[in-house]
Amino acid sequence: MTFLLLSIALAIVLGIGFMLLIIPGVILAVLLAFSPMAVAVDGLGVGDALKRAWDLGLKHFWTIFLVGLVVAVVSFVLGLVTAPIPFVSTYLSMVVGVYGAIALAAMYKAAK
């Protein structure tokens, strides 16, 4: 139930951020990137998870941003290269997303 409430809160906050000309959405996404890990690893509630993610996001903003950027660029380039083969393109995009999530989880563990 906590993940559902966190997902709703993140969708609202990030949706508003992205409607404010993309850059505020990117900043909020980076600052709150650790919130799912705070729920999963530490068992925090929604408010506490968002607060911890915000605090850690402020400390490690550029690291989180660069990892997210690398994941996005790799996914985009692989999508372009494998576009003629839709199944392969989709599969590689998912694999890159999983590795990005693993990298984010490892960064969360190291940042705590």
Report on the biggest sheet. none
- So how many helices? 6
- Percent helix among the residues? over 70%
How many discrete domains? 1
Query: What is the percentage of strand-forming residues?
Result: under 5%
What pattern of helices and strands is seen along the backbone?
HHHHHH
Summed over residues and divided by their number, the pLDDT gives a mean of 93
Assembly type: single chain
Distance separating the two termini: 24 Å
- Overall SS class: mainly alpha
| Radius of gyration, whole Å | 15 Å
Q: Based on Cα principal axes, name the global outline.
A: globular
Let me know the number of strands: 0
* Residue windows where pLDDT falls under 50 for at least 5 positions: none
Topology:
Blueprint: H1 2-19, H2 23-31, H3 35-42, H4 46-59, H5 61-81, H6 86-111
Key phrases:
single chain; 112 residues; mainly alpha; 0% strand; globular
